Amino acid sequence: MKFTTQQLTLMGMLIALNVAVGGIVHAIKLPIFLDAIGTIVAALVMGLAPGIVVGIASFLIAAAVLNPVYVWFIGTQAVIAVFVYLFASRFSAFKSIGRVIPTGIALGIIAGVVSAPVIVLVFGGVAGSGRDLITAGLISTGQQVYKAVILSGAASEPVDKLLQTLAAFYVLKSLPKKVLGQFRNAVLEKNGFL
Amino acid sequence: MLDLYPPARLLSGLLLVTAAFLAKSRFAIELVYIGVLLAVWATNVGMAHLRFVTFISTPLLVALLFIWGVIAAANHVPPPHHSGVDYAVFSWLRIVVCAGALQCLLVPLIEQPSHLKLFLEKSGLAGSLGTLIVASIIFLPEVRRRLRQIIDARRAQGYSLSGLRGIRDLPTLLMPLVSSLLDSATKRAEFWSHRGVLERTQFKGSPYSYSTQPSALALVLTIATCALGYFG
Amino acid sequence: MRTGVLRVNLHVLAGPNFSGRTHRLRVSVGLPSNPGAGPVYSEGAYIGPDAASAFSGIASTVAAELDLMAADRVSAKRAMRALEDLGFGYCLGLNPFTLSGGEQVVAAVVVATASGPKRLAIDCALEQLSADARTRLLAYLTTLDGHLTIADNRLDEWFHGREGVEELQAQPDSPMIHPDSSVTSESRPSRVEVIDLSHSYVKGRSVLTGLNLIFSAGELCRLRGPNGSGKSTLSKIMCGLIKPSSGEIRVDGRVVKPWLSPGKYVSYHFQNPDYQLFTNSVRLQLSQSKDPTALARSFGLESHLDDHPLDLPFVLKKRVAIASALARSTGYLILDEPTLGQDRISVINQNRIIAYGLSGLVISHSEMFSGLREITLPGPPRG
C-alpha cells in the first residue's frame, strides 16, 4: 500500500479524531457512539485504503486508550469504510440529504449484521447497550439468540450510523473550500463537496 | 517492566486470547485467567484492567445474566453449553480474560510511542503504517485540546451541548475541528517533505535491548496457559 | 549562555499586515508561497505562527524530536543545553503537543536550529512569547551561524535595531479596520463584581483563593499574571464555562449564576479564531449584530461577507472572531490576546472600537494595553 505524504499525515489525524470524538459521548449524554466519523471522512476525502486503515487503526488505539472491547469490532470499521467508499463512488450516495438518509440506514443495518457474529461468539450475545433490550425482547418471542442479535443490530445500529453519516455529510458540506480543495478527488467532486 | 522481543509479545497476547476460546469449562477459563493476571502484573496494567473489570465488564455481566439467566431460561432457549447462569458467568469470564490479554499487549505500547514504532516494524508492519499509528497517538492530546476549546467556545456563545440539542449541534462542532485537521495535515505534509522527516532515523539504533530469556519464558508460560485452558 | 556578539546574518522584515512578509519568508527558505503546492526539500527551516506545525509529530517528547531532527549528536546536546539555559528544559520530557503556544514556539525554534539549517525563517511566532522569553531566545539565535530572517507584528514593541531591517509596504487594497464606534455593543455596559471567589480543579490545589474584584461599567481592564495564576480560570468562571468552588458573581448589582447560562452575561473571545468560527459565511457569523454589514465594514471585512471565515488569512479570521464576540451584545467582553496577528495600526483602530463604551477584560502580552488599569493575579502558592 503506497500512500502520499499528505494522505499519511491526514490519516494520522483522522485516527486521532475517531479516538478523541469517541470519548466525548458522555458530554452529549445520549447513547450514540460517534466512533466512525473519522472513518467516513477518510473514505470520502482520501479513498478506500485510507478509510480502511483509519477505521482499523483507530479501533486498535481506542482499545488501548479507552476500552479493549473495541478490538473486536475492527472488522465492522473496515466494512463501514468499504461501504461508504463504494456507495459514494458508484452511486453518489452523499450528493444530497435524500440520498444520505437511506445510505446511513443501510450502513447501520450492514454494521449491525456484520457485528452480530462477534457479539454472539465473543460476548455471549450482549453488546452492553440498548441493543440488548431488543435482543432480550426478540428471545422472549422465541427467536434463537443468533437471529435475535442479528435483528437487534439491524434495528438499533441504523440510528447511530445514520446520525454519524449525516454528521459527516454536513461537516464536509460546510468545510471551507480552499482547505478541502487540498484533497480534491473524484469522489468529493461527484458528491458535490467540491 | 519486561521488554519482550516484539514478535514474542505479540504471539503471547494472541495465544492468551486463543486460550480463552479453547477453554471449555469454567475451571479451565479460571486457570487461563490466572495466567492473564500474571501477565497483567508483569506488564503493569493492573489499574487499567481493574477499571475495565469494574466499570465496563460489570454491565456486560448484568446483561448476560438477564438474557441467559432470565429471558432465555424462561423461553427455553438453551445456551451453547452449561446452564443459563453458568453460561453467562463463563462468557463474562472469557470477556475479562480477553480484555486482560489485549490490555497487556496494547496499553504499555501506547504509553511509550517510541517503543511502539519499533514494535510494529519488528512485528512486520510496513514502515509508513507504523509511522502513522505512532503519529496519531502522539497527536491525540492536541485533538482533544482542540475539541475542548471548540466545545468551550460554542458553550460561550450560548449553545447547550447536552441531549438532542447536542446531537443537532454535532456537525457545527465537528466542522472547525475537521477543517483544522485538514489544514494541519497539509502543513505537516509540507514539513515532512521540506525537512525530510520520513527519511530520518533516531540516533540510538534500538532504544532498548530486547531480552531473549524473558521473551522465551513468556512464550513458554503462555503455551502452558493455553494447554491448561485446553485440557483443564 | 553567550550573548552580545552577533554571528548570525540577521534580516528583519518590518511591515504591516498584507505586505507580503510570509511570502518572502517562505521563499527565503526554499518553500513555495502556499502550503500544499507540492513536495520540496531544502536546507532551510520555516516556523510560522502555528508552531505546532513545525514538529515532526512522530517523536513522543521534545528530546526525542531533537534526536530525530538534529544534524548530529553534538547539535542535539547543544540544543538541549540551550533549552535548559532558556528556562524551558522541562519541555524536553514532554509531548510537544501538550505544550502551550509560547513553549511550542521556543521548542520548535531550538529544534530547528539543531538541525543545522543554512537559513531559518521565523514568521510572526515571537509575539506569542513573554518579553523575557523573547529576549532570551533572540540572544540565543544571534550566537548561531547562518541566515536568520524574522518578521513579526508590531516589531517596534521589542526590536530596536537598525541594521538589516527591510521595510515592506502593505498591498494597496488591504483590508483596514475603521474605528466606527457606533458598531460597538448595543447593550448597556455592565458592572461585574467577583466576590470571595475560590476555585480548585483538584482537591487541595487552589487556582484562585478568595478573589475580590470590581469591574466598573464601561471600563476596559488588563488581566496579568504568570502561567498558572488563574487568568483563564477566572475568565471561564465569569463567562459561565466553569462553576466556581465557592464565591459569588454579581452583574449590575444582582447575584447571578453564569454557569447555568454560559455566555449570557459575559462574552468570551478565545485566543485562537480557528476554534470559534462555526458558520459558512462571515455574514452569518456576524448575524447576531443589529447591522452585520456595518460591523463587517468597521473590521475591514466588507469584501469578505460571503466568504467562509475559515478560508480567510489568520489576521482576518481573528477580526471575524472578535467582531462576532462584539455582535453578541452582552454587557461584558473578555478578550484573550486580541492583538495576535494584527499590526500596530490595526490594533490601535481595533482598540478604538472595543474601548468605546464597553466593559471588558483583556488578557495580553502586548504593551499596547499598558494604559489600562491592570489586575495582576498572584502566581500559584509555592511550597
Helix and strand layout, with pairings?
The complex is a heterotrimer of chains A (194), B (232) and C (383).
Chain A: H1 5-22, H2 25-28, H3 37-45, H4 48-65, H5 74-91, H6 97-121, H7 131-139, H8 145-174, H9 177-181, H10 186-190
Helix pairs in contact in A: 1-3, 1-4, 3-4, 3-5, 3-8, 4-5, 5-6, 6-8, 7-8
Chain B: H1 6-22, H2 26-42, H3 46-74, H4 84-111, H5 113-122, H6 127-156, H7 163-195, H8 212-231
Helix pairs in contact in B: 1-4, 1-8, 2-4, 2-8, 3-4, 5-6, 6-7
Chain C: E1 9-14, H1 21-28, E2 44-47, H2 62-69, H3 73-85, H4 101-114, E3 119-123, H5 131-141, E4 147-151, E5 165-167, E6 192-199, E7 208-215, E8 220-224, H6 231-239, E9 246-251, E10 254-256, E11 266-269, H7 282-285, H8 292-298, H9 314-327, E12 332-336, H10 344-355, E13 359-363, E14 373-376
Parallel strand pairs in C: 1-4, 1-5, 2-3, 3-4, 8-13, 8-14, 11-12, 12-13
Antiparallel strand pairs in C: 6-7, 6-9, 9-10
Helix pairs in contact in C: 2-3, 2-4, 3-4
Please sum up the structure shown.
Chain A is mainly alpha-helical. Chain A has helices at residues 5-22, 25-28, 37-45, 48-65, 74-91, 97-121, 131-139, 145-174, 177-181, 186-190. Chain A has ten helices and no strands.
Give structural notes:
The complex is a heterotrimer of chains A (194), B (232) and C (383). Chain A is mostly helical. Chain A has helices at residues 5-22, 25-28, 37-45, 48-65, 74-91, 97-121, 131-139, 145-174, 177-181, 186-190. Chain B has two domains: 6-120 and 211-231, no CATH class; 126-196. The two termini of chain B are 30 Å apart. The mean pLDDT of chain C is 89. Chain C has two domains: 9-167, Rossmann fold, CATH 3.40.50; 181-376, P-loop containing nucleotide triphosphate hydrolases (Rossmann fold). With 383 residues, chain C is α/β, with parallel strands linked by helices. Chain C has helices at 21-28, 62-69, 73-85, 101-114, 131-141, 231-239, 282-285, 292-298, 314-327, 344-355, and strands spanning 9-14, 44-47, 119-123, 147-151, 165-167, 192-199, 208-215, 220-224, 246-251, 254-256, 266-269, 332-336, 359-363, 373-376. Classes of the chains: A mainly alpha (194), B mainly alpha (232), C alpha/beta (383).
